[in-house]
Design a protein that fits this description.
The complex is a heterotrimer. By secondary structure, chain A is an alpha/beta fold. Chain A has 2 domains: 200 residues, 3-Layer(aba) Sandwich (Rossmann fold); 81 residues, no CATH class. Helix content of chain A is 34%, strand content 29%. Chain A has 8 helices and 14 strands. Chain A has a 6-stranded mixed beta sheet, with helices on both faces. A 4-stranded antiparallel beta sheet of chain A has the order 2-1-4-5, covered by helices on one side. Chain B folds into 2 domains: 64 residues, Winged helix-like DNA-binding domain superfamily/Winged helix DNA-binding domain (Arc Repressor Mutant, subunit A, Orthogonal Bundle), CATH 1.10.10; 34 residues. Chain B is mostly helical. Chain B is globular. By secondary structure, chain C is of the alpha+beta class. Helix content of chain C is 69%, strand content 7%. Chain C contains 11 helices and 4 strands. The longest helix of chain C has 44 residues. The chains are: A alpha/beta, B mainly alpha, C alpha+beta. The interface between A and B is medium-sized, with 24 and 18 residues.
Chain lengths: 297, 137, 331
């Protein structure tokens, strides 16, 4: 049973489409990096998967059950702002979350709270450091014993040490229970070591979706003479050209022609290549608009 | 939590993928005699609790080592080193080859070579004796 | 879930309890002081009724000068309490959750949104209503100790008396609370919900207070020309007045006014000494036979209270349903 499936999902806010025609399947047991620039639609997508937001078009289903404005019992969601009751103590918050769930393991929560330096159970939520706050938020999310964990920007506003610690907590959960994780971030470098599946979205659409190794093996970076691009085979994703030399990112490239050097991209340069290409498409579309406007004026 | 036998460290800037780094570190520890037959490798849970990597990556590295015949997974017990890669030449502070290398490095330092010079020299000579595999294209 | 709601609203509920304790203490103290004043002014007989046995008008005046304001303040507190319940309990109930994003925590647990909403409503509203009823009865107990020496003398339909009696205060409170929650759920801003809720409540309260009396079937009294209608003195709620023609039909107001004015003018022009009699004779000749008044007697005030409660309660139910719909669509 796939943890999460999206079929032609779209979400419109008034006149703007935050997510558009997204279809993908999240395989079980994977740690998925949901990456894209700010405002790409990552949050909307995760909130739809959590059953908080209803899609305008298409359908999402978790473990085979279509989501209709309710959170699936096997899914836990961590909101970007952590959304915890700040005036409660950690102990009271755990009790509150226990009261709001049918299936709940206080032991699991205590286990997660005890990881790393440990969190003081009598501390006020509002007085916790950003790292400890995230640890508490993840602990109560795991108290539901989820099979799919959705984390919206879990590392934003954390210092490097806290980032590392939060990732260790999440990875421990993956090791312990084989939980599928979808984590969004606008910084891929945060997730490079932990993800084995990448879902890149930009302008509300899926740009890359697949197993990291597979995706990387599918792409090539070719560097060669700018005057001689005719012999290059494959789907051109993006290119940077400086004087005589061209650097091309290709999908499904053929063997490199003479005079060209072919290497496998790393994940970061791949993602940057896609995002740069989509930004260029956008700005050239805008230039097109401006040009027509000038003519008619 | 760690067994204390081996601790992995991941260099995030090296460009070498995480699982390859784990494989290399196990092999290196075996060559240096830090891991010998019968030693248990840390479980995926123990590794990810210490360094933030995907447990699937650790398991993939262990499978790679298993294919190479260096370790074996015993159900419910863990992953164990099956043989030793260390030899007289690499183990211990007084192995003759090691002593020679230490002497050579000492002389290089006396001559005022910096670490980049030493690396450049070492890789140049190493490539003469151990030609690198063809770059795939 | 009740525990969660209780813990989240603990501060407000403790404040509410404080209001009850302070209010009760104040009423008990003031009432005993007031009884002391009644006894020292030898007005004990005047509490139940005014009349000849209560001859010392000067003592009664002195009592009223000293105690009318405190008693009115007690009534004003009961009139104000529903508005405060709306502003401080109703408005922040959902607005604060939406403002701080904490609704997301509840919405992503297994508890349903409806159950979450209902438990929050119950935990906030039930104690508030209990405190309101308790304070209402305390103030009523104090008012009855003053009897007709106090504000009760103005009759059940007086604005201050009507608003603090029977089910009306509870109906206002539930309405104010529901209004606060609705505006809060729609605006998602605590401050906006508090101010807008208070504004709308005040307008609705004044606008509807006139309407309510007209929804109870009135009784009609007629008076011959030159006689007074007693309903203006006996504390009844007069909802209509006018003229009847010789066959007992109501004369439309503008026509009656014109006829009345014509009679007055003809009398003035004649300028004779018997002008009042001539005027009274002129009226039936023009077709204005008797005056009438439609009224609700004081003994039926409870019917007006029930209509009041039905209107405000009905509006409250609509607003709560609206709140539920808004929260169901909330992301």
């Amino acid at each position: 049973m796939t943890p999460l499936t999206a079929t032609a999902v779209g979400k419109r806010y008034r006149t703007r489409w935050a997510v558009r025609d997204c279809s993908f399947t999240i395989p079980e047991g994977k740690v998925v990096a949901l990456v894209g620039p700010n405002g790409a639609g990552k949050s909307t997508l995760l909130r739809m998967a959590a059953g908080l937001v209803r899609p305008t078009t298409g359908e999402l289903s978790a473990f085979g059950t279509p989501l209709r404005g309710r959170t699936h019992p096997d899914v836990s969601f961590l909101a970007q702002n952590r959304s915890l009751y700040r005036d409660l103590t950690v102990r009271e918050l755990v009790r509150a979350c226990a009261a709001m769930n049918d299936r709940w393991s206080t032991d699991r929560v205590h286990e997660v709270l005890g990881l790393l330096a440990g969190v003081d159970h009598d501390a006020k939520i509002g007085a916790l450091s950003a790292g400890a706050l995230t640890q508490v938020a993840i602990a109560v999310a795991l108290g539901r014993l989820p099979r799919l964990l959705l984390l919206d920007e879990p590392l934003s506003d954390l210092d490097p040490l806290a980032r590392d610690e939060v990732l260790r907590i999440v990875m421990t959960e993956v090791a312990d229970r084989g939980t599928t994780v979808v984590m969004s971030s606008h910084l891929l470098s945060d997730l490079r070591e932990v993800c084995d599946h990448v879902l890149l979205i930009d302008e509300g659409r899926v740009q890359v979706d697949g197993d990291v190794e597979g995706v990387l093996a599918e792409h090539r970076v070719l560097v060669g003479p700018a005057a001689d691009e005719a012999g290059v085979e494959g789907k051109l994703i993006g290119a940077t050209r400086s004087g005589r030399q061209s650097t091309l990112l290709l999908r499904g490239a053929g063997p490199a022609p003479a005079g060209w050097v072919s290497t496998e991209p790393d994940l970061e340069s791949l993602v940057v290549g896609y995002l740069r290409a989509s930004r260029e498409r956008r700005s050239s579309a805008q230039r097109g608009h401006a040009g027509r406007g000038a003519k008619s004026a | 939590m760690l067994t204390g036998v081996i601790e992995f460290r991941i260099d995030r800037r090296s460009g070498v993928s995480t699982y390859v780094q784990i494989v290399q570190q196990v092999e290196q520890a075996m060559r240096l005699g830090l891991l010998t037959a019968g030693d248990r490798l840390p479980s995926a849970r123990e590794v990810v609790e210490a360094i933030a990597v995907n447990p699937n990556t650790v398991l993939k590295a262990y499978r790679e080592l298993e294919r190479a015949g260096l370790v074996e997974a015993r159900r419910g017990l863990g992953t164990f080193v099956t043989r030793s890669l260390s030899s007289e030449a690499t183990t211990g502070g007084d192995a003759p080859l090691r002593r020679e290398l230490a002497g050579w490095l000492g002389r290089a330092r006396e001559r005022g070579l910096v670490v980049e010079d030493v690396d450049a020299l070492y890789f140049a000579v190493r490539d003469e004796h151990y030609p690198p595999p063809e770059e795939r294209s | 879930m009740i525990w969660v709601s209780w813990r989240r609203q603990r501060a407000q509920l403790i404040t509410l309890l404080g209001v009850l304790l302070v209010g009760a203490a104040a009423v008990v103290l003031l009432r005993s002081n007031m009884i002391g004043a009644i006894e020292s002014l030898q007005l004990t007989g005047c509490v139940a009724q005014t009349g000849p046995e209560c001859a010392d008008a000067d003592a009664a005046d002195r009592f009223r000068a000293a105690w009318t304001n405190p008693l009115h303040l007690g009534q004003a507190a009961i009139l104000l309490l529903p508005a405060l319940i709306g502003v401080f309990l109703g408005a922040p109930l959902f607005a604060r959750e939406l403002e701080q994003g904490t609704h997301v925590l509840a919405f992503t647990q297994s508890v349903s949104r409806t159950r979450w909403m209902v438990s929050k409503l119950v935990v906030a509203l039930v104690p508030a209503v209990v405190v309101l009823i308790a304070l209402q009865h305390l103030v009523s107990w104090w008012l009855s100790a003053a009897g007709v020496l106090g504000p009760r003398n103005s009759g059940s339909f007086h604005f201050l008396n009507f608003g603090v009696e029977h089910v009306s205060p509870v109906a206002y409170a539930v309405f104010a609370f529901a209004l606060g929650t609705f505006v809060g759920a729609v605006s998602r801003r605590t401050l906006v919900a508090m101010t807008a809720g208070l504004g709308v409540f005040t307008v609705a309260r004044f606008a509807l207070s006139d309407l309510v009396g007209h929804l109870v079937p009135p009784q009609r009294v007629e008076a011959a020309l030159g006689e007074d209608l007693k309903v203006y003195q006996d504390g009844s709620l007069v909802t209509g007045r006018g003229w009847l023609d010789t066959s007992g039909r109501v004369v439309p107001d503008d026509r009656a006014d014109a006829l009345n004015l014509a009679c007055k003018r003809s009398v003035t022009e004649a300028g004779t000494a018997k002008s009042q009699e001539e005027y009274l004779a002129c009226l039936p000749e023009s077709g204005l036979a008797t005056t009438y008044a439609d009224f609700v007697p004081e003994s039926l005030a409870w019917q007006v209270h029930l209509v009041d409660a039905a209107i405000f309660g009905g509006l409250a139910v609509l607003l709560l349903v609206g709140t539920a719909l808004v929260l169901r669509r909330q992301s």
